[in-house]
Write a structure and sequence with these properties.
Layout lengths: L8 E3 L6 H10 L8 E6 L5 E7 L4 H5 L1 H25 L4 H17 L4
Antiparallel strand pairs: 1-2, 2-3
Helix pairs in contact: 3-4
């Protein structure tokens, strides 16, 4: 996996990163916009930010590694249904879910690029 490993959390400050958040806000010319950091704390307590975003987007972004792992786990369950659909020529919701899952995983892991 190329993405930052560990549990991604949402933090209003990541105090060591606050200067970067302030600079980003100033660069975008919107000083009223509120930003939060999504990132991890390593075992030594140091923060590593993986994204800066609006608070409304933070829960989805912070759950990205968990969502990717869950989707990868589902592929095996959907594979048989996809194979059956290819063999019979009749697509099902599960076979389309397999295709959509593969596409999303490729996008998330850059495998499709």
């Amino acid at each position: 996996m190329k993405h930052t490993q560990g549990e991604w959390i949402v933090d209003d400050g990541f105090q060591r990163q606050q200067e970067h958040i302030d600079a980003l806000t100033d660069d975008l010319g919107n000083p009223d916009r509120h930003w939060v950091a999504v990132g991890i704390f390593d075992e030594d307590g140091f923060a590593e930010s993986v994204a800066y975003c609006h608070p409304d987007n933070a829960p989805l972004i912070s759950s990205a590694p968990n969502l990717l792992a869950a989707l990868q786990a589902c592929l095996g369950l959907l594979q048989d249904e996809y194979n059956r659909a290819v063999h019979t020529g009749h697509g099902t919701a599960a076979s389309w879910a397999f295709i959509n899952a593969k596409t999303a995983i490729a996008k998330a892991t850059e495998a499709g690029l």
